[in-house]
Structures are given as C-alpha cells and as structure tokens.
C-alpha cells in the first residue's frame, strides 16, 4: 500500500458511512479530530474567520473532521475485506484489457506470474485518474489541468504551539497561497503538511532541492534554524469529470470518475460516497430486490453531485485563495467574516463544505454541465 502523503480529511457524512462499515472507532483512534478550520490572510498574518463543525451537532452524530491519512483508511478496509471468504485482494495486478458482454465483464490482468483473465457480473473501476478501464471504454475525461503543480512539504514542526495555527488552515495570498494541515502520522505524534503552488515550468529539482524547500517554509513561517522535512511531494492538479460514470456493466468510482484540486478535502470523501452508493445499488440488484435499470441512478445522481458540490466548490476555494485584486480579496474576507458571525449562514456554509448538503439533495437531474474553470460548477463483482 502506498503510504505517501495523499488525502487525509474525512468529513462528517463520510464518518457516518465509515461507522456503518464498522470502521469509525479505528479511524478516530488512528486519526486526529479537528473540529474547526480557519481562513488566514497570509501577507498580514491575520486570521480572517474560523468555522466550527460543532454547529452541525443536530445534523450529524459526528460534528467534526477526522484527519486520517488515506493509506490508513485503505488498509483498514482491506483488512476487513480479507475476512470475507469470497473476497480476493491482489496487488501489483495491472488491468491491460476490458471486454464487456451482455452477461458479464472480462478483464485481462498482468501480474508477475503472467497474464490471466478474470470475469465477473460487474466491474467497478476505481483505478485512479489515469484509469485504464475508463480509457478502454472510450469515456472522455472532461475538464482541464492547472498549469502550476502543487507541492506538499511534511514536517513535525508544531505550527499550533509555535504559530497558533489550527489543524486545518487556508492562507489567502495573491503571490503564493498556502494550506496547512495536521495529521496524526503513523506514530501518532503528529505531522504537518504545508501545501503550496509552484510556478509553471519549474523543474522537479528547482522545487524539491533542500535550499528551495527551506526558503519556501521560512517565507511561510520564519523560524530560527532549518525546518525538519520528512517528506516532499510534487504533483499535477486537475479538474476533470468522466462523461459518464456507467457504461453497460462497468462503473467508475473515485478518481477514475472525477479528480479535483485538494483545497477543501473533498475528493477522497466523494470517492467514498461513490463506493457506498454503488455498493448499495449492486446489492439491491444482485439480491433481486430491484431490476438492473436502477443502475441508471448512479450516473444520474453521482455525476451532477460531483460537479455541483466538488468541482465548483474546489475551484471556488482555489480562486478565493489566489485572488490578486485587492477589492475582491477584501470582499472575500468580508463574506467569510459575516458568514462565520451569523449562526444560520455559518451552519449553511458547513453543510455545503462538509458534503452533507450534497447527500440531502432531493432533485436528481439527468444531466450536468461541463466543469467550469472559473466558477466550478449476492453475485460476483470485480473491483479494480
């Protein structure tokens, strides 16, 4: 399992789903509870607003965020899956071909032992943003890629004790916005992840060398002596949504279906929501409770929800942090201040940012707009 720094934020409705899977106690024990999150003006060093999930105590049994790294949650799920007699978990098995028939799906898988064919009634492709299955089916991945890359620097330096930062912070800056998050780390002692945009065209060496890393961290929060850095990661960022989440007996979920910038911590959560909803639909059909045409609901519901609540919101989050116009920046700050100060608006803001509102959405449109860069807009199954 890849334990490199990836997603870590689990929102309240996702915690409810993990509770239904019997994972909530372990997630909380191995993660870090973060009740609040903050917006800062980086140039002035002033905190603009703080939002408190405690206002959702009437909406969810988990009115908080848990910062639990993706590889931990994945390993918990894999451990549970291995207890099922009919489950077969394999790693380093690459899908190289997909064939969809009227009554089954065949996938050709390449392993160190050679190539083999695996068949199932249905195929769930959760094979990432570069999904082989999505490409094999000819499903377009609509959207765009940002010209800049994102840099993640992980350090044990305690920004809460030394700088007064909360466990989830967003820093607005017309020159270089930043995000800062605390996670538990594998030893439970705590690590901080600082996220920055890089300049388009910068090489890996220019961004990741020791001098550049220290300059960036010292500019972020000056301190005496060098920052200890335990991990550094540089990656491309996309806003893309598959043209359809379902084709015949094949379903796309998670990053195979949608990718977005990480500001707001919504990608992992939306992927888990995909999986839970799809598992419920599959169970209802495989057990004969509903006809197969119910599968149309998956694409009709999940795709528009991703665009409205994830794509649009993460684009808006990025725009807010990188805004250069002083008048617009102050308007953004005033919006955040007023929203945080008004309990009703505060709660409404949290319902949307935590994805509770997306799950409460009643009207299910049959189509959705394209991604807008500026405004965001009992049978067998094979999982990949």
Give helix and strand order, one letter per element, not per position: EHHEEEEHEEEEHEHEEEHHEEEEHHHHHE
Query: What is the CATH class designation?
Result: Alpha Beta
List unreliable stretches of 5+ residues: 362-384
Give the overall shape: globular
Mean pLDDT: 92
Distance between the termini: 14 Å
- Summed up, the domain count is 1
Q: Could you state the CATH homologous superfamily?
A: FAD/NAD(P)-binding domain
Total strands: the figure is 18
The helix/strand class is: alpha+beta
Helical segment count: 12
CATH topology: FAD/NAD(P)-binding domain
Share of β-strand residues: 25-35%
Major sheet size, sense and barrel closure: 8 strands, mixed
Radius of gyration: 21 Å
CATH architecture name: 3-Layer(bba) Sandwich
Helix proportion range: 25-40%
Largest sheet, spatial ordering of strands: 4-3-11-12-13-10-14-17
């Amino acid at each position: 399992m890849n334990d490199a720094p990836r997603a870590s934020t689990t929102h309240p409705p996702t915690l409810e789903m993990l509770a239904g899977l019997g994972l909530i106690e372990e997630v909380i024990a191995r993660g870090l509870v973060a009740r609040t999150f903050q917006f800062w003006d980086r140039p002035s060093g002033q905190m603009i607003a703080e939002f408190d999930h405690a206002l959702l105590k009437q909406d969810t049994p988990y009115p908080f965020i848990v910062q639990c790294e993706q590889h931990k949650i994945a390993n918990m799920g894999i451990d549970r899956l291995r207890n099922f007699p009919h489950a077969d978990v394999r790693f380093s098995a690459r899908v190289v071909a997909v064939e969809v028939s009227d009554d089954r799906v065949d996938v050709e898988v390449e392993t160190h032992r050679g190539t083999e064919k695996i068949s199932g009634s249905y195929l769930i492709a959760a094979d990432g943003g570069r999904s082989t299955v999505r490409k094999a089916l000819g499903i377009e991945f609509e959207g765009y890629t940002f010209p800049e890359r994102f840099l993640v620097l992980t350090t044990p330096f305690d920004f809460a004790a030394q700088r007064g930062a909360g466990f989830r912070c967003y820093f607005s800056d017309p020159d270089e916005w930043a995000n800062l998050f605390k996670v538990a780390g594998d030893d439970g002692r705590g690590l901080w992840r600082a996220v920055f945009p890089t300049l388009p065209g910068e090489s890996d060496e220019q961004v990741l060398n020791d001098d550049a890393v220290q300059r960036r961290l010292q500019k972020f929060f000056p301190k005496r002596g060098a920052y200890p850095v335990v991990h550094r990661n540089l990656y491309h960022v996309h806003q893309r949504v598959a043209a359809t989440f379902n084709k015949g007996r094949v379903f796309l979920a998670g990053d195979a279906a949608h990718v977005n910038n990480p500001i707001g911590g919504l990608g992992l959560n939306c992927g888990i929501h995909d999986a839970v909803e799809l598992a419920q639909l599959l169970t209802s059909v495989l057990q004969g409770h509903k006809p197969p045409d119910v599968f149309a609901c998956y694409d009709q519901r999940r795709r528009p929800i991703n665009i409205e609540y994830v794509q649009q919101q993460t684009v808006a989050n990025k725009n807010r942090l990188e805004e250069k116009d002083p008048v617009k920046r102050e308007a953004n700050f005033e919006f955040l201040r007023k929203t945080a100060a008004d309990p009703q608006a505060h709660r409404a803001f949290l319902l949307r940012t935590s994805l509770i509102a997306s799950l409460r959405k009643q009207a299910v449109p049959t189509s959705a707009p394209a991604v807008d860069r500026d405004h965001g807009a009992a049978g067998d199954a094979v999982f990949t």
